[in-house]
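Recall that a protein's primary structure is simply its ordered list of amino acids. Everything else, from secondary elements to tertiary packing, is in principle encoded there. The following example makes that idea concrete.
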Amino acid sequence: MAEVGLLPIKKGSTVPEATILIVDDEKPFCYAVAEVIDQIGHHETLIANSVPEALELLEMRLPDLILLDLVMPNTNGLDLASMLRSKDAWASIPIVALSADTRPETKISALTAGANCFLPKPFTIDELRIIIQPFLLEKSCNRASDTEAG
């Protein structure tokens, strides 16, 4: 069963409430990133330590953003990115590919598989914030437009 961590939104956050799915086989890394996201000020973090766990979580809840490690045992992050892009319900979820492998061909493979961008490991809090904020702000704007229209 996938682990789910709920993190409270920080008061005065400049980015509205969001759900972020972290997919990485290294549990300590997932918890560290969840803590960073808490510092940035997002509301909910879902953690999956394998592709099957990620798929299980995606069936239950659609995140606003996915942070996806490319190198995992069995099914890797590239395969999951391709799966996400092939299913209508998941195709529009932004994906940030994560990897310590920063060779150009790795980045190209991630983007070709469907990732929106690539963030090399390790990264700083500021680097993560700069990468994810535009996706979450766009989600917020779309949600506000839907509310006004409806």
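Residues 1-12 have pLDDT under 50 and may be disordered. Strands lie at 3-6, 19-23, 44-48, 65-69, 95-99, 117-120.
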